[in-house]
Structure formats: structure tokens, C-alpha cells
Amino acid sequence: MTPGALDLRPLFPAMAVALAGVVVLLAQAFTPKGGRAPAAALSLAGLVAGLVAVIVIASGRGRGAVLAGSVAADEYALFFQGLILSIAILAVLLSPSYLRETGTDRGEYYALLLFAVVGMMGLVSALELVAVFVALEIMSVAVYAMAGLRRDREESQEAALKYFITGSFSSAFLLYGIAVLYGLTGTTSLTRIADVLRSGAASPVAGSAGAATALALVGTGLLLVGFGFKVASVPFHMWAPDAYEGAPTTVTALMAAGVKAAAFGGFVRIFQQALPDLAAQWQPAVAVLAVVTMVVGNLGALAQSNLKRMLAYSSVAHAGYLMTALVAAPGRGTEAILFYLVTYAAVNLGGFGAFAALTRSGREPLTLSDMAGLSTRRPLLAAALTVFLVSLTGVPVSGGFVGKFYLFSAAVGAGYVSLAIVGMLMSVVSAYYYLRVVIAMYMREPEGEDTWSPIGAGAGLALAVSTVVVLVLGVYPGPVMDWARMAARSIGSIV
Amino acid sequence: MTLTLFHAILFYAFGGLALGGALVMVSQRNPTYSAFALIVTLVALSAEFGLLGSPFIAALQIVVYAGAIMVLFLFVLMLLSVKAEARVEGEGRVFKLVALALGALLAAEVGSALLAAKTPMAGGFDASARAVARLLFSPQYLYVFEATSILILASLVGAVALARREGGR
Amino acid sequence: MTTDLLAVIVLLPVLGAIVLAFVPASAERAHKVVAIALTTALFLLSLALVEGFRAEPGMQFEVSRDWLPSLGVRYHVGVDGLSLWLIILTTFLTPISLLASWHSIHSRVKAFNIFMLLLEAGMLGVFVALDLFLFYIFWEAMLIPMYFLIGIWGHERRIYAAIKFFLYTMAGSALMLVAFIVLYKTSAAHTFDILALVQRPVAPSLQMWLFAAFALAFAIKVPMFPFHTWLPDAHVEAPTAGSVILAGVLLKMGGYGFLRLAFPLFPDAAHRFAPYIGALAVVGIVYGALVSLVQPNLKKLVAYSSVSHLGFVMLGIAAFTTTSVVGAVYQMLNHGISTGALFLMVGMLYDRRHTFAIEEYGGLKSVMPWFASLFLLVCLSSLAVPGLNGFVGEFLIMIGSWSLSRPMVVLASTGVILAAGYILWMVQRVLYGEVTHEANRALPDLSARELAVVIPMVVLAVVMGVASPLFTRLIEPSVQTLIYDTQSRATARARTVAAAPAPGPTDRGVR
Amino acid sequence: MTDHGPLDAPALPGPPAPGHPPAPGISGSPWVVLAVWSVVVGAGTWLLRSRPDAVPFAILLLPLLGFTVLALFGDAIRDQGEGTGAAWLACSTVVTSFALSVATVYRVMQFPGGHTGLRFTQPYLGFEWIEAGAFRVQVNLLVDNLSSVMMLVVSGVGSLIHVYSVGYMAHDEDKVRYFSYLNLFTFFMLLLVLSGNLPLMFVGWEGVGLCSYLLIGFWFKKKSAADAGKKAFIVNRVGDAGLILGMILAFHTIGTLDLVDLASNATSLSEEALWQFGPITAICLLLFLGACGKSAQIPLQVWLPDAMEGPTPVSALIHAATMVTAGVYMVARLAPLYSLSPTAMLVVAVTGAATSVLGATVALVQTDIKKVLAYSTVSQLGYMFLACGVGAFGVGIFHLFTHAFFKALLFLGSGSVIHALGGEQDMRKMGGLRKRIPWTYWTFVIGTAAISGIPPLAGYKSKDEILGGALAAGWRTLFAVGLAVALLTAFYMTRAVILTFFGTYRGDAETESHIHESPWVMLWPLLALAVGSIAGGYVDIPAFVAPALRLEAREGHPEWLPYLATAVAIAGIALAYYLYALYRDIPGRIYASARGLARVLESKYGFDTLYDGFVSKVVVGGSEEVLWKGLDTRVIDGAVNGTATATAALARRVRVVQSGLVRAYALLILGGAVAVLSYLLWVRP
Amino acid sequence: MSPQLVQHALLLSLALFAVGVVGVFLRRNIITIFMCVELMLNAVNLAFIAFSRAWGNLDGQVLVFFVLTVAAAEAAVGLAIIISIHRRKDTLDVDAFRVMKW
């Protein structure tokens, strides 16, 4: 590209969403008192526009890295942006009825959601650590706020607080890691960090090869802490159960699906693009974290009676599953993570979305007895939820199974058979707590009056889409796999 | 910019001041005192920045941190009329000891790596506002710079949404 | 084959389930009729497989297409002598169990029929799949409908049983999936295609581990002692149709898995582990028989008898001679028929009296003569009276397993004695004597529908008892090839065999 | 079972006209019977003329056809004429089989070399019974002199008993079922004796066991009957397991299970030395275990006495004349094989001798008339094995042949007595029936004389031969045992006759008033059998079957032997007469003075107690307490559930870490950071 | 002595970071804890400046600029959260917030 003439096309998707956020705010501001701004519709419009932009770019026009290689529009970024936008669209579809029933119906919600999406999109497309950090913070700040939006529940504010304190605490570690890497390499660009680390001696800061390695490892370790926190890997996971439980359920859905996807998007890209030469060091560490995460996440979920909290722990466990494939990055491991995130996002949107959709007058279905006999009262919803739970368990025919298979086959391919074994055994454990929900829905009689909300059109659509995605990925995952492969291969191809 | 002994003395003095402020901050039960101690540290750090040849950042530090952020903290402290932490007998002693040990361990680990590193000082270092601004507004950081606008907007909206009183619209 | 008959057979029930999903739940009769008609049609369609099947080794009706190239997964299906009759057994038992459930399932009829259809599809899929991935999909997917069948329509402790069933079998197959992947990664063929993998076994040391993982999954499914404790619970709590399918088809998948996968894929490990499998099988035979002797509950008794019967199957597989394996495959079919019929008839008793306790019955022969006669016949088939189906299988297994271990065969023969013990004792307590419970005095004899359910099973038991070659002739070529190929691919064996006379389809097993 | 009759003669509707027994209601459906009869006869004739090779199969299948028709359409048939039509249908199939058998035997003997048998292989189906690998079982029949004898006995005695049953079961409501079982039994028994290979023989073998089970437990409402049936089947199964193993071993050792091939292959095998437990000995002993089960030899003799719970004709047919002799038949059939193993021969002989003593001694103290006959059967079967064991296989078959007549006769006679007494079986409540039921009395006496070995009756001839065989083989001990048993036999049979027919009636008056001679349909089978019991000994069975057994003709016996045997028999009879007819108080005194011995005999040498204890305590008790409740529930399932419980407990522990205190969360982050850095810096440099 | 200056700045930054980290655990007042986090960010800033000086490039300066922005944004949201929870519970003792646990 010619210097001076800035090619901003790769930024269009994010810009569309950001613009939508601003418009939502303005619409809110200009709506007369008592009126209701069409915030959800506007958000949808912005997100759809962003998605269209992603598709247009992906179809060949405007791919590449721009702004001196600080941000990329490679297949990887586009894959994630498409995924994140889809997640956001479904989350927006789920939101109105839930917000109405919980009295959280405010314009800021959608604006924050859109800003969070902007942050997520930046996180997966940034080729540079400053951008990564800022994008991460945009996402985090918006989500901190969203977590605390439900004023009728003490849990919501507590969630925001806990998420915020631990989040900013871990951000500092991440930042220190960035500082160390910058100090070692003199740059924040992912590719240039990789170059310096590869050539080794070029750094004036490194006194010796050993010192360089030590610094690099410190930086890597601190980055690992930061991203470990964002993806909710044990032992950095402890915010997740509380934040997931306390946050408004639609926000939880966004956190479980979107934040996790974006965090993994950044995690994988940074470690793969900037630190490939240290893979021999950090991959074993990731493997250990993965094992611990799978075990603790699943055991934690096993002990829960609150369904949201159970799904929160389960999302911890799934971070562990995802991390098993990180040891096989680049290549099949990355593909597997990308593929799994798609099905995982659909499942979590569906799962939390189902709880959100049932919420009436601020009362959410939170316990197993709340779900008793759901299959007789909401047969379709129960069926959809069953599909999600089956997919979470990793039983065919569902995207969850294919995804898990993909992940574990990547891990085995990298020589980590033990990871696959632990993963499968933990899947068995997980079957127990997932199945309990199915039991409640199908094998217990409903108790008392039907106090659940009828399923609205938007939520119904979102749940239906999620269900279809999960099932299609279980039978015909080919296309998504192909995209994932293209995306995984594109990392580092554009500088 | 040449380095003189005076320079060095100032550097260590402000360094000590910063560290001292920090220690006071974490050892104070009263958050207000802590805030003042933090301000001391921040100002001292600003001086350190200047001594390390970064006048622009040093100024920014005073303006943004000491000037804006800490004022905000103090404002909130006043607003909520925060009292000192109540003293609880033997509260979390083990907890604190573990934290101290872990903190020391962390410092040792990172420190060992830092100590092994060479620390040259590149010549011809120009970190004037002009030079920094040139880089800041180059395409390389344009994206991040623009992103910060969204960040601030998001935090604004978030703060409003959270802190606004019930029923207020 | 240009038309993929197997895909049609597997997908037809799925299609049926989808169609039924759109029929309102209130139209219960329509659901029943459609499901029974569909599965019956499928049975007739599956007979086309028998019709077109040539008594030759190798896969027939084979179809292989790309499916998920990025995972190395193909859509590869086919039928050979090992799977042919198991497919027929599946399509045969499904309409029968649906018909048997006509009255006994009165709640959520729609869901019941849908789950049964999905279950059938899953079972058929397992038997036709020739790609590990595909195999696993069906293998696991089947758990879910079965889980619902037990959990929704089961008896008092149904939830416990359903969870136990699901977790236990899933735990077993969890490690198998890892083994699949390891196999894929390490095999020279670098594929999930079973036929290709079989051609080139992996290193013997690795085989041991992979075989162990496979064997665990299959041993739980069979179930072999000591992995059997899920079975009595699942059987007792499952509704009749569930028990029939569980005993009739699901358990067969374990044996089938050994034959289709574990043994041919890992010839060296199979060679090494066969004696242990045989020993466990024999323990299962005796143990299952002894424990079922003292069961106070009809269904539990039959469940433990399954452990015993399937011990014979496993003994035959472990011996791995043509005779024993043909016997094992045949015994799987026999067990499907006779134990399936036992569960059907026990279910008919339950429909009348709502109890499985043996002591609640007695003297039924005076009030339900037709039931008594048919029940006796089914029992005789189960205890392997020659002339009925069970004998042929057990005899072939014992005669073929002689080369594996003589003491094992001798011990297995005690199973024959004990079978007479537990079955006849049960028969006596249920059918003979005076009617001791007032409630039994007016029990109606079998209805026309019930007769229609039982009589096909009984007829098959007789036909299979007197005309076994009709079935075994289609089984044997595949078995011979299986054994010959497996033996010749075992590296440990290849060395010793090199000096031996030219190998032909021999009757001496892996041993 | 002694205090009240089984339904052997279920509550008689009323006193029948004395001396003029009511003819069973043939009138029920005469036309049906006639039609069936003519079709059967016509078809049989056609078969013999045009498809002679099919005749053996027809012999087999006719009773099966009868069974099938009765089983499927029994209800319809019963609705007409109280099932009498069913009875006659059943009879007709067996009688036709008998007729065809006679024709076949005749035809076989016309062939040159026909004495060693003709094999009939079925050409009708495109397959055999079992085909798997090297193991194949054809559906082929072997008609040689040995199976001819058996076939004739089975279908002949079977026919008579079918006919007898028409009268005996006339008042039973369930006679359709009875006759269907009886027909099925005939089918399996014919299959047993005709089959050309061991596995097919085993089908018949187990089949007759099954029918025995069904018929013993025919009156299933009675617990003792159901128990006895079950016991019979299970004890037989023990033997059958041996038989199965023997077949397997034979297949793997000799390479075939075809009877003819086995016999001819056996000649190429070398004889094993005494006490050398080679494969041949093992095969023979395993097969003999099967024979012990079926033929009620020690240690599996316990079921036969209990089997008397069945209707008396069944006892006659199955538990005296035919089924229980299957073991003898099989051992004789495999004579060439047994001849190779002196060890096995010795075991067979000793077992037979021991069993014959056991049966004879226990019979001394029985008070139930059928039990006497049952133990007598046990004893006589032992006699037959004794013959086989000393190498006189043909003689064993000879005794089998004669025994079939006189034992069937005795059973049917006892049935007639029981019928007359309205179900009474206890001899202590009989007496003086000689005049009341003369036909029965005389035939019974003939049977007793025959079994006692009084010349010139059938038993005399065959028993004589056995003793001679033992002597010829050099087994003096066995000879002595045989002689002793002969004495005992004569004694206890005479005792039974005296208690039943002599003296004065000891039962109650009510029963006495109903005593009546049996109808003719029951009497003429008695007469026919009586003729057989007299004349049967004049058929030279040993010579006849010798070619089929591939044995040398026997040597002559010492000429003093017949006199000695006769003397022993007469001594036995005289002693019994002395004790039970003349000085009736002596038996009681003997009893009193030899209580220990009496108790041993009354407890049947304790076998039942031992077995019951083993089964109920060790097998059932052990299975319930140790295996099921202990191992299965507690250990194995405990481990399964324990894993789940342990996981849940672990989960509760893990959960506690999540304290809800945010600083603890941060601490864990810090700890994690330290751990990660330590790992990266120090563990993995 | 000049090279040591940068190194000592780095060590100072590390010390401040460690003090911040430990402070999070020593204090119970949420605002103080938050201030400790701010201290950690500032410590990192010092490291950035030091490294910038070592390399003689300005990326470190720019980084600090953005970190300041982030810190401000975090402060805004963080304090808003604190205000809102204080409103509900009338305490800033961090250990008082444990409705959700286990």
C-alpha cells in the first residue's frame, strides 16, 4: 500500500460495531423520557453490518495487515470476528426479554455489549502487544460493567467487583509480561518479537543467551498468567464461577461464548506468532495447566447445585479441553481450538440463553428442581437444552463430540496422550452433572405452577440457531473445519 | 543529556521516595492516607521518568495520574466517607504471610532474570513530546490510539451505568 | 454397489424419528402405528441384505466416501458375515419390542417411539461402520436414547440405573476414543479406516496398550466379569422394550467390537491377552450362573444369566478358532432371541402384576397355559437344549475353544449345568405349583398382540436350533478370513509359523 | 406321596360297574380318528413302496408330527370328546412308527452286510444341522442291528404304553398335554437310538430328558412333582456336561463324531493300559458320566426314584423301558472305543455292580410300590452296565431288551393296582388284591418271575448271560456281586407281590369299595408285555447285535451256571415268602435289631442328603451370601459406586477452595504466576 | 555507572510491583486494594520507560501513554463499581462480599 494512503478496510467490521455503539448511546440520549430507544434493533443492525463486512473481506477484498502491521485482517482474524459477531447477534437476540423481565432494560447495556465486541474483535486481529492490551481492556472494562448491571441482585454487583479486582490484578501481570518482552526485544510487534527471539543475540538487553532465555520465559510466563486468567484456566479461574453466576444471564452467555473465544483468539495468536521458538518451554506448562483445569473445572461443576454456576465451572473445564490442543499449535491444534470454539460458543449461548429465556419477573431457573418436568412444559426448549448438554458432554451426534475429538487428536498428535486420557475421563465425570439437568427435565415431574416465561421470538430464534449449529457441526462439520484450517494456517502469513 | 552524579543522587532519592510511598501505602489502614502515600509515589515516579530522559511521560504522569486519577480516588474516598479498616485480631495472618512469601518469590524470579540482563543506555535518546507524538500518531499506533477512544467511551458508559442511582435515567 | 442400501437402512429410522417429531404428541396411536410400520418395513428391507449377500469373505454393500478429510475420517460402511445377522437381529427386535410396548408405555408415547427409532439407527450404524470415527459416533450416540428409555419409562430406581448405565459405558469407551486417535497417529496407514488399519498393525508393544483400551470398552459393553454390575440395574429398571434391545442388541456390540476391531487391529496383543479374556469369560459363565441362581427378581435373574451366556460368547472369541468364533457370533444371535424373548415375556407378566418378584408368582401354568408353554420353550432355548438355538452356539464355542484351554472348557460346561438350575428353578417358582396369590388367579392369558410378539421369537429359536447352516454359512467365510488374516499379521506368530506348513484357513486359533 | 395318590386316578367320578370297565370314550370323535388313521396308514404304505430311504425319517417324524398337531391344536381337540381323540391320535403315530420300524428292520436285514448297518442321509434340505469350520454335524440316521433292537423296543413298548395311557389317563383333564409330551418323547427317543452321530444323538438324549422333566412334573401343581422333574433334569445335566466334554474330546482326538466312523477309527487307535489315563480313557469316562446321568448310576442315581412322581405309564416307558437305558445303549454303541480302555471298562463294571447293589438293597425297605420298582430299575440298569463293563456289550443290550418288557409290565401292573386303589401307592395299605384284580395280578406275577430270573422267562436268559459274561471276563468278584443282586432282586420283588396281592386288604373301607379291575385298554398292553416277558429271552440279541458292535461272538458259559442262577432266584423268592407270607413278624424284628443298617437303606445311603446339603448350602447359600451379596454387591458394585462417591467427595473438597473471598482468588492468581514462572525458569530451563 | 541506572530502575519497578502485589493481600479496603493495582501498573510503566531508555526507542514511551489511558478507564469503571456496591452494602471491606462462593 502506498504510504500515506491508509487502507482502513480491514477495520470496517469493528468500526461498524463501534459506530453502532455510539448510535445506540445517541439514540438513548435523544429518546424522550418514557420512550424506548430501539437499542436492540440498532445493535443488531450494527452487528449484522459488521458481519457482512467480515464476509466481504473474507471473500477476498481487503485482506491483509494494515497500519504498519499493527492490525491484521487475515483469515484467522476474520474467522474470529465472524464468530464473535455471530455470538453477539445471538446474545442481542436473547437480551430484550431477559432485560425486560429483570428490569435491566437500559440503553447502556447494548452500547457496552457493542463496545465489548469491538474489544474482542481487536483482540483477535491485533498483531501488536499494545493493541492486544488495549483491546483486552476495552473488552474487560465493558464486561466488568455489564456484569454489574443487574441491580436487583446483590450477586450481580459482587460479580462485577470480583471480576474487576481480579481482572485488573491479572492485567498488571499481563502488562508486566509485555514490558519484559518489550525490554528483551525492543518491539511490541508479534512478528518482530518472534524474529528477535529466533536470532537471539540481536537484543542489546540480553547479556547472554541464557539471560535472554530467562527474560523471554519470564515474559512468556506472565503472558500466560494474563491469558490464563481471561480464558479462566485453573488456577486463574476463580473469578469465573462468581462472575458467571452473578452477572445477568445474557451477559454470562456473552462472557462464556464471546470473551472466551476472543481470549483464546488472542492467546493462540500471540503464543503462536510471537513465541513459537519458546514452544518447547511453554507448551508443557500449558499442558500442566490444561490437566489441572480439566480436573478442577469438572470436579467443581460436579459439586454445584446452581445451574449457572455449574455451567460456569463447566466453562472452566472447557478452557482446559481447549488448552490441550494448544500444545499442538501451530497446525492441527489451532484448527481444533478454532473449531471447538464455534461449537462451544453455540452451546454456551444456548445453555445460558435457555436460562435467560425462562426468566420471568427477575426469577431465574437456577436449581435442578426449577428444571423439573421442563420437558412437559417447554418440550422444545428442553430438547434444545438437552442437545447443548449432550454437546458439552462430548457425546455424538453433536459438535461437542467432533470438537473434542479434534482437540484430543491434536494433543495426541503432539505426543500428549495423557492429556487426551485425562480429558476423556473428565468428560465422563462431566456427563454426571450435565445429565442431572436432563434427568430433572425429562425424568422428574414438574413441581407447582408453571412460573416460567414463555419463550419469546428473539430468544427462540437464538436457541434454534444454536441448536442447529450444534447438530450440524456434529454431522457435517466439514465446512467449518475447512474454515478453521484456513484460519489456522493464516497466522503469521501476513506481516 | 549527560549523566552526572547529581543525576544519580536524584535518581536514587526519588527511587527511595517512591518505594517509601508505596510501603506506606500498603501499610496504612486508612485508605485516605494510603491515597496520599500513593500520590507521593506517583510524583516520585514522575521524577524518575524525567531522570530517565522521558520528560513527556513525566509530565503526563503528573497530569493524568496524580492529577486526575488520584483525585478521583480521593473524591470517592470522601464521597463514601471511608473509615480506616477495622482492626481484627489475628486476622488472616497466615494468609498475609503466604502472600508475602509468594510476592517475594515472584520478585526473586523476575529479579533473577532482570539481573542477568545487560542494561545498556542507547545514545542519542530523544523522548521529547515532539518525538513521542510523532510515533504516537504514526500508522503503527493509530489503531491503538483510536481504540483508546472506544475504551474511554466504554468506561464512561460503564461508570455511568453502574454508579447512577436507582430509578435515575 | 451404486445405491447405498446401508445408508438407507441406517437413516430410515432417523428419518422416521424426524417425521414423528412433527406429529402432535396427542396422536399416540398414530405414533405407535407409524413406528411399528416403519421398523417392520425396515426389517423387510434389511432382508434384502441377506438376499443379496454372497457367502464370501470380504465386505459387501460397501460404500466409501470422503467425509471429514481434515480429520482423516471417511464415510465407510459395509456388511460382512460378522455384522450381517446382527443387523437383521436389530431390525427384527425393534418392531417386536415396539409392539410389545403397545400398552405398557402409556406416557409420552411420541418421545418413546422417537427414541426407539434413534436407538435403532445407532445400533445399525455400529454394525455397518467401517471407519473408527463413524463407529464411535454410533457407539456413543446410542447411549442417549437408551439413557432416556431407562430414565423416563423405567421403574422405581430408573434414574440411578440410567446414570449408571450411561456413565459406566461412557467411561469404558472414553479411553477407547483416545486409543482410536493414537492408532490413527501411529499407524502407517494414517487413517481411521478399519479395513486399512487392519492391514498394517502397529508395533506390538503399542498394541498392548491400545488393545487394553479397546478391550475395556468392549468388556464393559458385553459385559464381562467384573465389569457387569451396571447390567442388572439397567435391566431391572428399563422398560421391557429397553431390556429387549439392551440384551438383544446392545450387549452384542461388545463382542462385535472384539471381533471387528480389537482382535484384527492388534493381533499380537490379542494373542497375548486371549487367555486372560478366556479366563474372565469362564469366570463370567460360572459366576453369572451362580448369582442368577439366587436372584429373587425375574429381570435380575435374566440379567445375570446374560452375563453367563455372554461369557460363552467371549470364550469363543478368545479362543479365536473358526468354529469357536462362528459359535460366538451365532451365540450372540441366539442370546438376542432367547433373552430378548425372556424379557418380553417377563414384561408381559409385569404388565399384569407390576412386579418382578418371583415370589409374587407361582402356578401360572394353570391360569396362563399359552404363556406357560411359550415361556418354557424360551427358557429351554436359553438353557441350551439341543434342537433349540442356544445349544448350537454353546456347543460350537466349547468345541472350538478346546484349543485355547481345556480347563476353561471344562469349567464352562458347568455353566451348562447351572443354567438348568437357575432357569428351571425359576420356571418352577413362576409356572408350577398352586396359585398362591389371589391376584394371580384371574390373570388373562396372552392376547393376540402378545402372541404376535412372542411367536416370531419362538419360531426363530426353533429354526435356528435345527437349521443353523442357513445362518452360519454366511458367517463362516468372513470368520475364516478374519482368523487367517489376524494370525498371519501377528508378528510374534509370523516368526513361528514361518517354519510351519502352509497356512490355510485353519481351525487352530491364535493360540 | 404315599399318603394320598397323585392324580394318578383323579377323584373317580363314581363307582364303575365292577368287572365291566367303562370303555374310554372313543365315541368322542371316531371319524376324526378314523380319518387320521387311514391317512397315516396310506402314507406309510406309500412311503415303504416308493421312498424306502425316507422311511427311517418318517419313523422319527411321525411322533413329532403328532406332538406338533397336539401342541398347536390341542385346545380345539380337547374341546371335542374330552381329548380322547388326541389320545388316539398320539397312539396312531407311534403305532405307525412301530409298523414302519418293523418293515425297516426287515428291509435292513435283507441287505448284504446289513447287519453292520445302513446310513440314511437326508437329501431333502440343502444343509446339515451344524456346519462351522471343521466341525460338521450331519443329519444322518444309522439303522443297524443295534439300533434296530432299540427302535423296536422304543416304538413297540412305546405303542403299548400309549395305548395303556388311553385308559390310565382317561379321567385327566389335561390328557392332550400328556399325549403330546408322550409323542414328543417318542420322537426324541427314536432320534436318540437312530441318529448316526453323537451330537445328533445328544439332541435325542437331552430331548428325552426334557420330556422326562415335563412328564415327571406333569402334575405341576404338586410341589413334589415339580421338584422331582427339576431334579431329574439338573442331575441329567451334570451327566450331559460330561457327555458334551466327551464329545468335544472325542472330536479333537479322533476327528469325528460319526458313530460309524468313530467305531472304524477306533480300530486304528492303540489300546491304553489299565490306569493309563490317556485320551481314550478320558473320552470313555466323560461319556460314561453322561450315561450315569441318564441311566441313574452312582453317583447320579438320585433322580430316578423321585421321578416316580410322574404318571405311572410314564414311569414305565421313560423310567424303566426306554430312556434310562439310553446310557447302556450309548456305551454299547461305542463298544469299540470302550474296548480300548480297560480303565474305563473297569469303572463301568464297578459302577454298574455298585449301583445294582445299591438299588437292590434300598428296594428292600421301600414301602411304595413304585419306589420298589424304581430302585429295581436302578439295580437292573447297574446290571446292564456290569455286563458292558465286563465286555459283554451284547448281553447288556440283551438285558436291556428283556428288562424293557418285564419292567414295563411291572410298572404298568403297578399302575393298574394304583388305578384300582384310587391312587394308593403304599404297599402297607394294600394286600389281598389277588382276587379283586386278577388280570393285573397274573401279569404282575409273570413280570416278577421274569425279573427274578425264573426259567424259562426272559429275565432268566439275560441275567444268566450277564453272570456268564462276568465269569468269562475273569471277574469273580463281580460275578459274586451279580449273584447276590439276583438273590436280592428275587427277594424284594416277591416281597412286593406278597404285600400287594396276598394276605388281607389293609386299606380303608372307602377305598376298598371302589377297587376294580382296569379297563381292557389297559389290560391288553399288560398281556402283550407279559408275552414279551416270557418270550423275549428267546431272541438271541447278543448274537444279533454283535456285528453292529464289531465284537467277537461270546464264549460259552459253564453249564452249572443256569442251575446256580435259578437256585439263587428261587432262594430269594422262598426267603421272601418265608418272611412276608409265613412269618410276618420276622421283618419287623430284623428291622429292630439292625436299625443302623435299616437307616442307611432308608436314607438311600445318604446321597440325597449329601447332595441337597451341597446344593442348598454350598451352591445356593454360597452364591447368595458370598458371590451375590458379598462379591457382587459389596466388592464389585461397591467399587463402582465407590468411585462415584469418591469423585463426589473430592469435588466437595475442591469446591471449598472457592471461598468467595476475592483476595483468595487473587492469591491463587499470584500463586499460579509463581508456579508458572518457577516451572518455566527452573523445571524446564 | 550509567548502565546500572537503567537496571536499578528496573529493579525499582520490580520492587514497586511486588509491593503492589503484596498490598493487595495486606489490605481489606477495596479502594486501597485498587490503589495497589494502580501501583502495579505504575511499576510497569517504570519498566517500560527503563527499557525504552535501554533500547533508545520510543515505543516504551507510547506504551506508557496507553497504559495511563487504560488506568484511567479502569479507575472510572472500578470506582463506579465500588460506589454501587457501597451503596448496597455500606461497607468497603472486601471480605464482606462473599454471597457467592463454593
Characterization of this structure:
The complex is a heteropentamer of chains A (495), B (169), C (511), D (685) and E (102). By secondary structure, chain A is mostly helical. Chain A has 20 helices and 2 strands. Chain A has helices at 12-30, 39-58, 75-102, 107-125, 129-147, 154-185, 190-199, 209-230, 239-246, 249-273, 279-302, 307-326, 332-358, 368-371, 374-377, 379-393, 399-413, 417-443, 457-475, 478-490, and strands spanning 64-66, 71-73. In chain A, strands 1-2 form a two-stranded antiparallel ribbon. The relative contact order of chain A is 0.10. Chain B has 169 residues and is mainly alpha-helical. Chain B has helices spanning 5-27, 31-51, 55-79, 93-116, 129-136, 139-163. The model of chain B has no long low-confidence stretch (mean pLDDT 86). Chain C contains 21 helices and 2 strands. Chain C has a two-stranded antiparallel sheet with strand order 1-2. The longest helix of chain C has 32 residues, at 322-353. Chain C is globular, with a radius of gyration of 22 Å. Chain C starts with a helix and ends in a 12-residue tail after the last helix. By secondary structure, chain E is mainly α. In chain E, 80% of the residues lie in helices and 0% in strands. In chain E, helix 1 runs antiparallel to helix 2 and helix 2 packs antiparallel against helix 3 (59-89). Chain E is elongated, with a radius of gyration of 17 Å. The mean pLDDT of chain E is 89. The chains are: A mainly alpha (495), B mainly alpha (169), C mainly alpha (511), D mainly alpha (685), E mainly alpha (102). The interface between C and D is large, with 62 and 53 residues.
Major protein interface:
B-E, 83 and 73 residues
Widest sheet of chain A: strand order?
A: 1-2
How many DSSP-defined strands of chain D? Answer: 4
Taking all Cα atoms into account, the compactness measure Rg of chain D is 31 Å
**Distance linking N and C termini of chain D:** 91 Å
The largest sheet of chain A is:
2 strands, antiparallel
> Uncertain segments of chain D of ≥5 residues (pLDDT<50)?
1-28
Largest β sheet strand count, sense and barrel closure of chain D? 2 strands, antiparallel
What is the oligomer described by this structure? heteropentamer
Compressed to H and E, one letter per element, the order of chain A equals: HHEEHHHHHHHHHHHHHHHHHH
**Overall helicity of chain A:** over 70%
Q: Which percent band covers the strand fraction of chain D?
A: under 5%
What is the 3D shape of chain A? globular
What is the average of the pLDDT values of chain D?
85
Globally, the shape of chain D reads: globular
What's the gist of this structure?
The complex is a heteropentamer of chains A (495), B (169), C (511), D (685) and E (102). Chain A is an all-alpha fold. Chain A is built from 20 helices and two strands.
Task: Please describe the topology of this protein.
The complex is a heteropentamer of chains A (495), B (169), C (511), D (685) and E (102).
Chain A: H1 12-30, H2 39-58, E1 64-66, E2 71-73, H3 75-102, H4 107-125, H5 129-147, H6 154-185, H7 190-199, H8 209-230, H9 239-246, H10 249-273, H11 279-302, H12 307-326, H13 332-358, H14 368-371, H15 374-377, H16 379-393, H17 399-413, H18 417-443, H19 457-475, H20 478-490
Antiparallel strand pairs in A: 1-2
Chain D: H1 30-50, H2 55-79, H3 84-110, E1 118-121, E2 130-132, E3 135-137, E4 140-143, H4 145-168, H5 175-194, H6 198-216, H7 223-254, H8 259-268, H9 279-294, H10 303-306, H11 312-321, H12 326-333, H13 335-338, H14 342-364, H15 369-389, H16 393-420, H17 438-452, H18 458-472, H19 476-501, H20 509-514, H21 520-535, H22 541-549, H23 561-582, H24 585-593, H25 595-602, H26 607-657, H27 662-683
Antiparallel strand pairs in D: 1-4, 2-3
Helix pairs in contact in D: 1-3, 2-3, 2-5, 3-4, 3-5, 4-5, 4-11, 4-16, 4-21, 5-6, 6-7, 6-11, 7-9, 9-12, 9-14, 11-16, 12-16, 14-15, 14-19, 15-16, 15-18, 15-19, 16-17, 16-18, 16-21, 16-22, 17-19, 17-21, 18-19, 18-23, 19-23
Chain E: H1 2-26, H2 30-55, H3 59-89
Helix pairs in contact in E: 1-2, 2-3
